Amino acid sequence: MSKSKKVLVLSGKRKTASARASIRIGNGKVRINNVPIEVFEPKLARDKIMEPLMLVDDKVCSQLDINVKVSGGGFMGQAEAARMAVAKALLKWTKSTRLHTTLRDYDRTMIAGDPRRSEPKKFGGPGARARDQKSYR
User: Measured between alpha carbons, how far is 72 from 19 in angstroms, rounded to an integer?
Assistant: First the structure.
């Protein structure tokens, strides 16, 4: 009987963006929507996604392959959703309390998430709070 491979799938959400990260034993490749992280654009989003990988031991990262599928939202919301999915996957894979405290102290939204959502538009105006102006003359 063949030895089964261990694969973890975890998700992260930010605003309307959602990401699924699958992590398995490999040789250190990180892909976002089948694009290698080294060529992922824009650079600001790439740096955001790389934050949990930089906080983890290099020995751990070089033995794992991480594939992230992201959909919905804008590029920054997608980056933060992918960042959360990667951080949660690394936490679950390593089961390290030291890594948990490191990630939590660096930025709590990597683990806990941000519950804020955009307020829905109401009648009588162009947006959630803005109203049409009145003129009495």
Answer: 9
Owning domain of residue 55: 7-110
Chain segment 32-50, per-residue pLDDT in tens: 999 999 999 899 999 999 9
Do the beta carbons of residue 32 and residue 96 sit within 8 Å? no
| Residue-wise burial string across 88-118, b where 16 or more C-beta atoms lie within 10 A, e elsewhere | bbbbebeeeeebeeebeeebebbbeeeeeee
The pTM score is 0.84
Q: Total domain count for the chain?
A: 1
Q: Which pLDDT value is given to residue 3?
A: 55
**Rounded CA separation 81/18 (Å):** 6
φ and ψ at 12, to 5 degrees?
-145, 145
CATH number of the CATH domain containing 24:
3.30.230.10
Q: Which residues contact 66 (CB under 8 A, 6 or more apart)?
A: 21, 22, 23, 29, 30, 31, 86, 89
Structure-token pair, residue 29: 């490749």
